[in-house]
Protein backbone atom coordinates (compact mmCIF):
# COMPACT_ATOMS: atom_id res chain seq x y z
CA UNK A 1 0.00 0.00 0.00
CA UNK A 2 1.51 3.33 -1.07
CA UNK A 3 1.18 6.81 0.47
CA UNK A 4 -1.63 7.87 -1.84
CA UNK A 5 -3.73 4.90 -0.84
CA UNK A 6 -3.16 5.64 2.84
CA UNK A 7 -4.21 9.30 2.39
CA UNK A 8 -7.49 8.13 0.88
CA UNK A 9 -8.48 6.23 4.03
CA UNK A 10 -10.68 7.77 6.70
CA UNK A 11 -9.86 7.84 10.39
CA UNK A 12 -11.66 4.57 11.31
CA UNK A 13 -10.03 2.68 8.43
CA UNK A 14 -6.58 3.93 9.50
CA UNK A 15 -7.21 2.85 13.11
CA UNK A 16 -8.28 -0.63 11.95
CA UNK A 17 -5.19 -0.89 9.75
CA UNK A 18 -2.86 0.14 12.56
CA UNK A 19 -4.45 -2.33 14.98
CA UNK A 20 -4.17 -5.15 12.42
CA UNK A 21 -0.53 -4.36 11.77
CA UNK A 22 0.22 -4.14 15.47
CA UNK A 23 -1.35 -7.55 16.08
CA UNK A 24 0.63 -8.99 13.20
CA UNK A 25 3.89 -7.51 14.54
CA UNK A 26 3.16 -8.93 18.02
CA UNK A 27 2.51 -12.36 16.48
CA UNK A 28 5.78 -12.30 14.54
CA UNK A 29 7.74 -11.08 17.58
CA UNK A 30 6.32 -13.96 19.60
CA UNK A 31 7.53 -16.41 16.94
CA UNK A 32 10.98 -14.86 17.00
CA UNK A 33 11.33 -15.84 20.64
CA UNK A 34 10.46 -19.51 20.05
CA UNK A 35 13.28 -22.08 19.96
CA UNK A 36 14.07 -23.87 16.69
CA UNK A 37 12.52 -27.27 15.99
CA UNK A 38 15.16 -29.99 16.33
CA UNK A 39 15.08 -33.81 16.49
CA UNK A 40 15.40 -33.51 20.29
CA UNK A 41 12.30 -31.39 20.85
CA UNK A 42 10.01 -32.27 17.92
CA UNK A 43 9.28 -34.85 15.26
CA UNK A 44 11.92 -33.37 12.97
CA UNK A 45 13.85 -36.34 11.51
CA UNK A 46 17.48 -36.72 12.59
CA UNK A 47 18.63 -36.23 8.98
CA UNK A 48 17.39 -32.62 9.14
CA UNK A 49 19.11 -31.83 12.42
CA UNK A 50 22.30 -29.77 12.56
CA UNK A 51 25.26 -31.14 14.48
CA UNK A 52 27.24 -28.58 16.49
CA UNK A 53 30.82 -27.93 15.50
CA UNK A 54 33.28 -29.62 17.84
CA UNK A 55 35.88 -27.54 19.66
CA UNK A 56 39.23 -28.78 18.30
CA UNK A 57 41.01 -27.79 21.52
CA UNK A 58 38.52 -29.54 23.77
CA UNK A 59 38.30 -32.61 21.54
CA UNK A 60 42.07 -32.93 21.44
CA UNK A 61 42.53 -32.74 25.22
CA UNK A 62 40.83 -36.01 26.12
CA UNK A 63 44.14 -37.84 26.54
CA UNK A 64 44.94 -41.38 25.52
CA UNK A 65 42.07 -43.79 25.06
CA UNK A 66 41.62 -46.41 27.76
CA UNK A 67 42.71 -49.90 26.81
CA UNK A 68 40.16 -52.66 26.29
CA UNK A 69 40.35 -56.46 25.99
CA UNK A 70 41.46 -57.71 22.62
CA UNK A 71 38.98 -59.23 20.20
CA UNK A 72 39.32 -61.82 17.47
CA UNK A 73 37.16 -63.27 14.73
CA UNK A 74 35.49 -66.48 15.94
CA UNK A 75 36.08 -69.67 14.00
CA UNK A 76 33.40 -70.68 11.53
CA UNK A 77 31.05 -73.28 13.08
CA UNK A 78 30.81 -75.34 9.87
CA UNK A 79 33.88 -74.92 7.64
CA UNK A 80 33.70 -76.15 4.05
CA UNK A 81 36.81 -78.30 4.42
CA UNK A 82 39.61 -78.91 6.91
CA UNK A 83 43.39 -79.19 6.49
CA UNK A 84 45.48 -80.79 9.21
CA UNK A 85 49.10 -79.73 8.83
CA UNK A 86 51.57 -82.26 10.31
CA UNK A 87 55.34 -81.89 10.72
CA UNK A 88 57.57 -84.21 8.64
CA UNK A 89 61.02 -83.26 9.97
CA UNK A 90 62.30 -81.66 13.14
CA UNK A 91 63.40 -78.15 12.31
CA UNK A 92 66.29 -78.38 14.81
CA UNK A 93 68.05 -81.61 13.77
CA UNK A 94 66.17 -82.81 10.67
CA UNK A 95 64.95 -86.07 12.24
CA UNK A 96 61.91 -87.72 10.60
CA UNK A 97 58.96 -87.08 12.98
CA UNK A 98 56.12 -88.14 10.66
CA UNK A 99 55.37 -91.16 12.84
CA UNK A 100 55.50 -89.20 16.13
CA UNK A 101 52.16 -88.40 17.82
CA UNK A 102 51.30 -84.73 17.27
CA UNK A 103 48.63 -82.56 18.89
CA UNK A 104 46.96 -79.40 17.50
CA UNK A 105 48.25 -76.12 18.98
CA UNK A 106 46.69 -73.46 16.75
CA UNK A 107 43.63 -73.30 14.47
CA UNK A 108 42.55 -70.50 12.17
CA UNK A 109 40.20 -69.97 9.22
CA UNK A 110 41.25 -69.02 5.72
CA UNK A 111 38.19 -67.49 4.05
CA UNK A 112 37.92 -67.21 0.28
CA UNK A 113 35.10 -66.99 -2.21
CA UNK A 114 35.05 -69.31 -5.20
CA UNK A 115 35.23 -68.08 -8.76
CA UNK A 116 31.93 -66.39 -9.54
CA UNK A 117 30.43 -67.65 -12.78
CA UNK A 118 26.86 -68.41 -13.84
CA UNK A 119 25.54 -71.96 -13.79
CA UNK A 120 23.96 -72.29 -17.23
CA UNK A 121 21.95 -75.40 -18.15
CA UNK A 122 21.11 -75.88 -21.80
CA UNK A 123 17.71 -77.60 -21.97
CA UNK A 124 16.97 -79.30 -25.29
CA UNK A 125 13.53 -80.80 -25.80
CA UNK A 126 13.29 -83.69 -28.25
CA UNK A 127 10.44 -85.05 -30.36
CA UNK A 128 9.81 -87.91 -32.74
CA UNK A 129 7.31 -90.34 -34.28
CA UNK A 130 5.96 -93.40 -32.48
CA UNK A 131 6.92 -96.55 -34.44
CA UNK A 132 3.70 -98.24 -33.25
CA UNK A 133 0.92 -95.72 -33.91
CA UNK A 134 2.81 -93.25 -36.05
CA UNK A 135 1.74 -90.30 -33.91
CA UNK A 136 4.19 -87.52 -33.05
CA UNK A 137 5.46 -87.24 -29.48
CA UNK A 138 7.47 -84.50 -27.78
CA UNK A 139 9.26 -84.04 -24.45
CA UNK A 140 7.77 -81.76 -21.79
CA UNK A 141 9.85 -79.01 -20.24
CA UNK A 142 11.12 -79.80 -16.70
CA UNK A 143 9.08 -78.16 -13.95
CA UNK A 144 12.13 -76.51 -12.36
CA UNK A 145 13.35 -75.07 -15.69
CA UNK A 146 10.31 -73.91 -17.67
CA UNK A 147 10.75 -72.11 -21.01
CA UNK A 148 10.46 -68.34 -21.18
CA UNK A 149 12.70 -66.23 -18.99
CA UNK A 150 16.16 -67.83 -18.68
CA UNK A 151 16.73 -66.50 -15.15
CA UNK A 152 16.27 -68.88 -12.24
CA UNK A 153 14.84 -68.11 -8.75
CA UNK A 154 18.24 -67.68 -7.09
CA UNK A 155 19.27 -65.05 -9.62
CA UNK A 156 15.90 -63.32 -9.31
CA UNK A 157 16.18 -63.30 -5.51
CA UNK A 158 19.66 -61.79 -5.75
CA UNK A 159 18.47 -59.02 -8.09
CA UNK A 160 15.52 -58.22 -5.81
CA UNK A 161 17.81 -58.19 -2.78
CA UNK A 162 20.30 -55.76 -4.34
CA UNK A 163 17.62 -53.50 -5.74
CA UNK A 164 15.36 -53.17 -2.71
CA UNK A 165 17.76 -53.78 0.17
CA UNK A 166 20.69 -51.72 -1.11
CA UNK A 167 18.90 -49.30 -3.47
CA UNK A 168 21.14 -50.09 -6.44
CA UNK A 169 19.95 -48.45 -9.65
CA UNK A 170 19.13 -50.54 -12.71
CA UNK A 171 22.11 -49.16 -14.61
CA UNK A 172 24.56 -50.07 -11.85
CA UNK A 173 22.80 -53.40 -11.30
CA UNK A 174 23.23 -54.37 -14.96
CA UNK A 175 26.91 -53.40 -14.75
CA UNK A 176 27.34 -55.38 -11.52
CA UNK A 177 25.86 -58.50 -13.13
CA UNK A 178 28.26 -58.14 -16.04
CA UNK A 179 31.37 -57.46 -13.93
CA UNK A 180 30.80 -60.02 -11.15
CA UNK A 181 28.89 -62.81 -12.87
CA UNK A 182 29.70 -62.37 -16.53
CA UNK A 183 25.97 -62.09 -17.26
CA UNK A 184 24.75 -59.59 -19.81
CA UNK A 185 21.34 -58.45 -18.52
CA UNK A 186 19.76 -55.30 -19.88
CA UNK A 187 17.95 -52.81 -17.69
CA UNK A 188 14.69 -53.76 -19.39
CA UNK A 189 15.26 -57.42 -18.52
CA UNK A 190 15.83 -56.43 -14.88
CA UNK A 191 12.57 -54.47 -14.86
CA UNK A 192 10.72 -57.42 -16.39
CA UNK A 193 12.26 -59.69 -13.76
CA UNK A 194 10.80 -57.52 -11.00
CA UNK A 195 7.45 -57.18 -12.75
CA UNK A 196 7.12 -60.96 -13.05
CA UNK A 197 7.59 -61.33 -9.28
CA UNK A 198 4.61 -59.10 -8.43
CA UNK A 199 2.01 -61.89 -7.94
CA UNK A 200 4.28 -63.90 -5.63
CA UNK A 201 5.01 -60.96 -3.31
CA UNK A 202 1.38 -59.82 -3.39
CA UNK A 203 0.29 -63.27 -2.14
CA UNK A 204 2.92 -63.21 0.60
CA UNK A 205 1.89 -59.71 1.68
CA UNK A 206 -1.75 -60.81 1.89
CA UNK A 207 -0.76 -63.65 4.22
CA UNK A 208 1.15 -61.21 6.43
CA UNK A 209 -1.84 -58.85 6.49
CA UNK A 210 -4.17 -61.69 7.45
CA UNK A 211 -1.94 -62.63 10.40
CA UNK A 212 -1.80 -59.00 11.52
CA UNK A 213 -5.57 -58.58 11.42
CA UNK A 214 -6.00 -61.80 13.40
CA UNK A 215 -4.11 -60.25 16.34
CA UNK A 216 -5.38 -57.92 19.05
CA UNK A 217 -2.74 -55.13 18.78
CA UNK A 218 -1.77 -53.04 15.78
CA UNK A 219 0.81 -50.26 15.37
CA UNK A 220 1.01 -47.79 12.51
CA UNK A 221 2.84 -44.80 11.08
CA UNK A 222 3.51 -43.20 7.69
CA UNK A 223 6.13 -41.25 5.75
CA UNK A 224 6.21 -39.49 2.42
CA UNK A 225 7.24 -41.19 -0.81
CA UNK A 226 7.58 -39.95 -4.37
CA UNK A 227 5.64 -41.75 -7.13
CA UNK A 228 6.02 -40.29 -10.58
CA UNK A 229 5.86 -36.56 -10.01
CA UNK A 230 3.46 -36.67 -7.08
CA UNK A 231 3.77 -37.05 -3.33
CA UNK A 232 2.34 -40.31 -2.00
CA UNK A 233 2.51 -41.91 1.45
CA UNK A 234 4.19 -45.07 2.65
CA UNK A 235 2.17 -46.59 5.52
CA UNK A 236 3.34 -49.33 7.86
CA UNK A 237 1.07 -51.59 9.94
CA UNK A 238 2.81 -54.05 12.21
CA UNK A 239 3.04 -55.86 15.52
CA UNK A 240 5.22 -58.65 16.81
CA UNK A 241 6.68 -60.79 14.02
CA UNK A 242 4.58 -59.41 11.16
CA UNK A 243 4.89 -56.12 9.30
CA UNK A 244 2.93 -54.85 6.31
CA UNK A 245 3.63 -51.81 4.13
CA UNK A 246 1.11 -50.00 1.96
CA UNK A 247 1.86 -47.15 -0.48
CA UNK A 248 -1.11 -44.94 -1.35
CA UNK A 249 -1.69 -41.44 -2.70
CA UNK A 250 -3.49 -40.44 0.50
CA UNK A 251 -2.59 -39.73 4.10
CA UNK A 252 -6.18 -39.91 5.25
CA UNK A 253 -8.36 -42.39 7.11
CA UNK A 254 -9.41 -44.05 3.86
CA UNK A 255 -6.04 -45.85 3.75
CA UNK A 256 -6.52 -47.31 7.23
CA UNK A 257 -10.12 -48.24 6.49
CA UNK A 258 -9.07 -50.03 3.30
CA UNK A 259 -6.34 -51.96 5.14
CA UNK A 260 -8.57 -53.01 8.06
CA UNK A 261 -11.77 -53.80 6.19
CA UNK A 262 -14.31 -54.88 8.79
CA UNK A 263 -11.65 -55.76 11.39
CA UNK A 264 -11.03 -53.53 14.40
CA UNK A 265 -8.12 -54.42 16.72
CA UNK A 266 -8.52 -54.21 20.46
CA UNK A 267 -5.57 -51.81 20.91
CA UNK A 268 -3.95 -49.37 18.49
CA UNK A 269 -0.51 -47.77 18.92
CA UNK A 270 0.44 -44.62 17.00
CA UNK A 271 1.24 -40.96 17.30
CA UNK A 272 -1.61 -38.45 17.68
CA UNK A 273 -2.19 -37.92 13.94
CA UNK A 274 -5.94 -37.85 13.34
CA UNK A 275 -6.03 -40.45 10.55
CA UNK A 276 -4.60 -43.06 12.93
CA UNK A 277 -6.92 -42.31 15.85
CA UNK A 278 -10.26 -43.90 16.67
CA UNK A 279 -9.70 -47.39 15.21
CA UNK A 280 -9.28 -49.46 18.37
CA UNK A 281 -12.19 -51.24 19.99
CA UNK A 282 -10.80 -50.96 23.53
CA UNK A 283 -7.76 -48.69 24.02
CA UNK A 284 -5.36 -46.47 22.11
CA UNK A 285 -1.74 -46.05 23.22
CA UNK A 286 -0.19 -42.78 22.06
CA UNK A 287 3.55 -42.57 21.51
CA UNK A 288 5.22 -41.30 24.69
CA UNK A 289 8.46 -40.55 22.81
CA UNK A 290 6.64 -37.92 20.72
CA UNK A 291 5.20 -36.33 23.87
CA UNK A 292 8.62 -36.29 25.58
CA UNK A 293 10.03 -34.34 22.62
CA UNK A 294 7.04 -32.00 22.68
CA UNK A 295 7.68 -31.40 26.39
CA UNK A 296 11.32 -30.60 25.60
CA UNK A 297 10.20 -28.01 23.05
CA UNK A 298 7.89 -26.38 25.62
CA UNK A 299 10.83 -26.29 28.07
CA UNK A 300 13.08 -24.71 25.43
CA UNK A 301 10.33 -22.16 24.72
CA UNK A 302 10.27 -21.08 28.37
CA UNK A 303 7.65 -23.15 30.21
CA UNK A 304 9.19 -23.94 33.61
CA UNK A 305 5.98 -25.00 35.36
CA UNK A 306 4.15 -27.79 33.54
CA UNK A 307 6.48 -29.22 30.86
CA UNK A 308 9.43 -30.27 33.11
CA UNK A 309 7.22 -32.30 35.42
CA UNK A 310 5.42 -33.93 32.49
CA UNK A 311 8.69 -34.86 30.81
CA UNK A 312 9.98 -36.49 34.01
CA UNK A 313 6.70 -38.39 34.39
CA UNK A 314 6.73 -39.74 30.84
CA UNK A 315 10.41 -40.70 31.00
CA UNK A 316 9.74 -42.56 34.23
CA UNK A 317 6.84 -44.38 32.55
CA UNK A 318 9.10 -45.46 29.68
CA UNK A 319 11.67 -46.80 32.14
CA UNK A 320 8.97 -48.86 33.82
CA UNK A 321 7.99 -50.16 30.37
CA UNK A 322 11.54 -51.37 29.75
CA UNK A 323 11.47 -53.29 33.04
CA UNK A 324 7.99 -54.65 32.43
CA UNK A 325 9.08 -58.24 31.73
CA UNK A 326 10.52 -58.54 35.26
CA UNK A 327 7.53 -57.01 37.05
CA UNK A 328 4.38 -58.69 38.32
CA UNK A 329 0.92 -57.63 37.15
CA UNK A 330 0.09 -56.20 40.59
CA UNK A 331 3.27 -54.11 40.52
CA UNK A 332 2.40 -52.73 37.10
CA UNK A 333 -1.08 -51.84 38.29
CA UNK A 334 0.38 -50.01 41.28
CA UNK A 335 2.77 -48.11 39.02
CA UNK A 336 -0.10 -47.13 36.75
CA UNK A 337 -2.13 -45.78 39.67
CA UNK A 338 0.82 -43.68 40.88
CA UNK A 339 1.51 -42.30 37.41
CA UNK A 340 -2.15 -41.35 36.96
CA UNK A 341 -2.20 -39.65 40.35
CA UNK A 342 0.95 -37.70 39.49
CA UNK A 343 -0.55 -36.73 36.13
CA UNK A 344 -3.72 -35.46 37.84
CA UNK A 345 -1.57 -33.21 40.01
CA UNK A 346 0.38 -31.94 37.01
CA UNK A 347 -2.79 -31.01 35.12
CA UNK A 348 -3.65 -28.54 37.89
CA UNK A 349 -0.48 -26.57 37.16
CA UNK A 350 -0.82 -23.45 35.00
CA UNK A 351 1.89 -23.33 32.31
CA UNK A 352 4.07 -20.22 32.07
CA UNK A 353 4.26 -20.16 28.26
CA UNK A 354 1.92 -20.63 25.31
CA UNK A 355 3.86 -23.72 24.24
CA UNK A 356 3.19 -25.23 27.65
CA UNK A 357 -0.51 -24.42 27.36
CA UNK A 358 -0.60 -26.16 23.96
CA UNK A 359 1.13 -29.18 25.44
CA UNK A 360 -1.25 -29.29 28.38
CA UNK A 361 -4.27 -29.20 26.04
CA UNK A 362 -2.78 -32.12 24.06
CA UNK A 363 -2.26 -34.14 27.24
CA UNK A 364 -5.83 -33.48 28.38
CA UNK A 365 -7.10 -34.70 24.99
CA UNK A 366 -5.20 -38.02 25.20
CA UNK A 367 -5.40 -38.36 28.98
CA UNK A 368 -6.62 -41.97 28.95
CA UNK A 369 -4.20 -43.14 26.22
CA UNK A 370 -0.91 -42.59 28.03
CA UNK A 371 -0.43 -45.65 30.23
CA UNK A 372 -2.32 -48.42 28.40
CA UNK A 373 0.95 -50.37 28.07
CA UNK A 374 0.99 -50.93 31.85
CA UNK A 375 -2.28 -52.87 31.63
CA UNK A 376 -1.43 -54.83 28.47
CA UNK A 377 2.06 -56.34 28.16
CA UNK A 378 1.70 -56.70 24.39
CA UNK A 379 1.45 -52.92 23.96
CA UNK A 380 4.65 -50.84 23.71
CA UNK A 381 4.87 -47.42 25.38
CA UNK A 382 6.16 -45.74 22.21
CA UNK A 383 5.67 -46.00 18.47
CA UNK A 384 9.42 -46.31 17.86
CA UNK A 385 8.91 -49.70 16.23
CA UNK A 386 6.99 -48.07 13.40
CA UNK A 387 9.69 -45.46 12.84
CA UNK A 388 12.38 -48.14 12.84
CA UNK A 389 10.44 -50.13 10.23
CA UNK A 390 10.10 -47.02 8.03
CA UNK A 391 13.77 -46.02 8.31
CA UNK A 392 14.98 -48.25 5.42
CA UNK A 393 12.19 -46.82 3.28
CA UNK A 394 13.42 -43.30 3.97
CA UNK A 395 16.97 -44.30 3.03
CA UNK A 396 15.67 -45.87 -0.19
CA UNK A 397 13.75 -42.67 -0.94
CA UNK A 398 16.81 -40.49 -0.47
CA UNK A 399 19.06 -42.73 -2.59
CA UNK A 400 16.73 -43.50 -5.50
CA UNK A 401 14.24 -40.60 -5.46
CA UNK A 402 11.58 -43.34 -5.34
CA UNK A 403 9.47 -44.62 -8.23
CA UNK A 404 8.47 -43.70 -11.77
CA UNK A 405 5.42 -45.99 -11.90
CA UNK A 406 2.64 -46.97 -9.52
CA UNK A 407 3.18 -50.72 -9.94
CA UNK A 408 6.81 -50.33 -8.84
CA UNK A 409 5.69 -48.52 -5.68
CA UNK A 410 3.21 -51.26 -4.81
CA UNK A 411 5.82 -53.95 -5.51
CA UNK A 412 8.29 -52.18 -3.21
CA UNK A 413 5.68 -52.13 -0.42
CA UNK A 414 5.07 -55.87 -0.86
CA UNK A 415 8.80 -56.68 -0.88
CA UNK A 416 9.47 -54.51 2.17
CA UNK A 417 6.66 -56.37 3.96
CA UNK A 418 8.40 -59.69 3.28
CA UNK A 419 11.87 -58.39 4.18
CA UNK A 420 10.81 -56.75 7.46
CA UNK A 421 8.73 -59.77 8.50
CA UNK A 422 11.68 -62.05 7.73
CA UNK A 423 13.99 -59.87 9.82
CA UNK A 424 11.63 -60.06 12.79
CA UNK A 425 11.39 -63.84 12.43
CA UNK A 426 15.20 -64.20 12.23
CA UNK A 427 14.95 -65.52 8.65
CA UNK A 428 17.64 -64.67 6.11
CA UNK A 429 16.50 -62.07 3.61
CA UNK A 430 17.58 -64.07 0.57
CA UNK A 431 15.90 -67.19 2.00
CA UNK A 432 12.68 -65.22 2.51
CA UNK A 433 12.77 -63.85 -1.04
CA UNK A 434 13.44 -67.31 -2.49
CA UNK A 435 10.61 -68.81 -0.42
CA UNK A 436 8.24 -66.10 -1.66
CA UNK A 437 9.18 -66.72 -5.30
CA UNK A 438 8.62 -70.45 -4.68
CA UNK A 439 5.17 -69.76 -3.21
CA UNK A 440 6.00 -70.80 0.37
CA UNK A 441 4.62 -68.79 3.36
CA UNK A 442 6.89 -67.35 6.03
CA UNK A 443 5.20 -69.25 8.84
CA UNK A 444 8.27 -71.02 10.14
CA UNK A 445 11.84 -72.05 9.53
CA UNK A 446 10.89 -75.65 8.64
CA UNK A 447 8.63 -74.75 5.72
CA UNK A 448 11.11 -72.12 4.60
CA UNK A 449 14.05 -74.55 4.53
CA UNK A 450 11.95 -77.09 2.63
CA UNK A 451 11.03 -74.48 0.03
CA UNK A 452 14.65 -73.35 -0.27
CA UNK A 453 15.90 -76.91 -0.83
CA UNK A 454 13.28 -77.48 -3.51
CA UNK A 455 14.38 -74.26 -5.21
- Let me know the number of strands: 7
The number of helices is 16
Largest sheet: 5 strands, mixed
Q: Enumerate the spans where pLDDT stays under 50 for 5 or more consecutive residues.
A: 445-455
Order of helices and strands: HHHEEHHHHEEEHEEHHHHHHHH
Strand content: 5-15%
Radius of gyration: 32 Å
Please list the strands of the largest sheet in the order they lie side by side: 5-4-3-6-7
Mean pLDDT: 88
Please give the share of residues in helix.
40-55%
End-to-end distance, in Å? Answer: 76 Å
Class per helix and strand makeup: alpha/beta
Q: Looking at the structure, what is the overall shape? A: extended
Characteristic key phrases:
alpha/beta, 45% helix, 5-stranded mixed beta sheet, 16 helices, two-stranded antiparallel sheet, 455 residues, single chain
Can you tell me about this structure?
- The chain is of the alpha/beta class.
- The chain has helices spanning 3-7, 11-32, 56-59, 153-165, 170-181, 187-196, 198-213, 253-260, 288-301, 307-322, 329-346, 354-365, 384-400, 406-424, 429-437, 445-454; strands at 127-129, 136-138, 217-227, 230-239, 242-248, 267-270, 283-286.
- The strands form 2 sheets. The protein has a 5-stranded mixed sheet.
- A hairpin with a 6-residue loop joins strand 1 (127-129) and strand 2.
Amino acid sequence: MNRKALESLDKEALIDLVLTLAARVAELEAKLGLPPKTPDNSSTPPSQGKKPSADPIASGSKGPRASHPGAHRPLHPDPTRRRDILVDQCRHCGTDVSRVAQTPFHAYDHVEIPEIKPDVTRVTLHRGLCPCCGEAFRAEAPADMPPGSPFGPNLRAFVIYLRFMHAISFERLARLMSDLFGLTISEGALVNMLADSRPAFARQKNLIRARLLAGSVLQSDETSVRVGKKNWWNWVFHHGEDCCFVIRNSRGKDVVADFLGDVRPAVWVSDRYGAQMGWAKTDHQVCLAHLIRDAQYAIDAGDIAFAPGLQDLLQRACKIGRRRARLADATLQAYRSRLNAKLDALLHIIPTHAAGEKLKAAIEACRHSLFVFLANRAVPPTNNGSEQALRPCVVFRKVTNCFRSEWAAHLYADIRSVIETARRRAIGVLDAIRATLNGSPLDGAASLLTATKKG
